[in-house]
Amino acid sequence: GLSGRGVPTARVDSDRTRTEPRVHSIRIMSDSDSDREEREDETLGNPAVVDKYKVAAEIANKSLAAVIAACVPGAKVVDACALGDKSIEDEAAKFYNKKGADGQKIDKGIAFPTCVSVNNQVCHNSPAPDDDAVIEEGQAVKIDLGAHVDGYVAVVAHTHVVGADDGVPAGAQADVMEAAVVASEAAIRKLRPGASTSDVAKAIETVANDYGVKIVEGVLTHSMKRFVIDGNKVVLNKPTPELKADETTIELNEVYALDIVLSTGEGKPKMQDEKETNVYKRAIEKNYKLKMQASRAVFSEISKKFPTMPFTMRAMGDVRGAKLGLSECMKHELLHEYPVLYEKPGDAVAHVKCTVLVMQNGNDRVTTFAPQVTKSEKELMDEDLKALIAEPLKKKKKKAKK
């Protein structure tokens, strides 16, 4: 994910890379044996959990395809976002509808609201219902969304040029798009048990350098757990003086949102207008007794509807009233914001994100997209990474001898 207020690193630095544990999940974690077993049951060691990740991924993949199809010249950006969110809800409604032993249906649906960021908009553009921005021929759209089943999250992001000449983007936009896809292919093969998070980041950096593009600052590949879309374990794609992350080791049965954003500009995106921010997430570790009734009402609705996952303001019952109550919530850090960030006009940006299950016999890339065919003059020169990318993601299972 890419976060921050004005500078894309502020929130990440203060909130996500600190070393003390953050309790994201609402369930209180004790260290009793039964509780530890329950937590272990929430890993990929449990086939039922793997199934839920894969169903969440199927929902996300179908919804991404629906949004790509809707991004045509003349379509409103907000309509494409709303369609993505509706698709996630509609697809999720098809699965896991039996009640559990406790008589409850499992929670499922949107884990990250659909964002369609256009051209030099880097991320988090999920406009208000009355926004009139229209998609135009030749624009590059970055589509970003996520679904969950029982708290198990699958996220995906993809870059697509709308109605490109001859259907093949070229020049600077092709360079960033191809570099992002190649970087993703290299990074996913580095994201194996025993590797360090800096090994993954170095692979992304090597690809970006070969294509002559910049890694966008503030982008993190987060580990994910049940009901936690942004776990404490991260790959920081580009360390800076303001933003550093502890180096850690990738482990078996972990899940990562492998997130890559590249730019032909400086890679230092900025917020232009706070009013454009429409994506927020409840800060679970913070509490405060709000004074204003409007603030209490909006915070109550958020806590009921979106206790753990990011959401768009369009999903609130009364969008205008909700905006009134937001400022007090933000002042007391009860919400994290996901601002719309921009590179400079004319900069080409590409965003690729996939959900990776670190499994015994190789990595499972459960959210996928067919990259648009591009015509870049640049290519990967690094021989080691070329050889790595040529390897299959998963080992073929050996047949048992008779």
- For this structure, the quaternary state is single chain
Radius of gyration: 20 Å
Instruction: Please mark out the parts with pLDDT under 50 across 5 or more consecutive residues, or reply none.
Output: 4-37
Envelope shape = globular
- Largest sheet: number of strands, sense, barrel closure: 6 strands, antiparallel
Describe the structure.
- A hairpin with a 2-residue loop joins strand 3 and strand 4.
- The radius of gyration is 20 Å and the shape is globular.
- The relative contact order is 0.18.
- The protein has nine helices and 15 strands.
- By secondary structure, the chain is α+β, with helices and mostly antiparallel strands.
- The protein has helices spanning 10-16, 33-40, 47-70, 77-92, 171-190, 197-211, 293-305, 319-331, 383-390, and strands at residues 108-118, 121-123, 140-149, 152-161, 214-215, 220-224, 234-236, 255-263, 270-271, 279-282, 311-312, 335-338, 341-342, 349-359, 362-365.
- The strands form four sheets. Strands 5, 6, 7, 8, 14 and 15 form a six-stranded antiparallel sheet that branches. A three-stranded antiparallel sheet has the order 1-3-4.
- Helix 5 packs across helix 9 (383-390) and helix 7 (293-305) packs across helix 8.
- The longest helix has 24 residues, at 47-70.
- The termini are far apart.
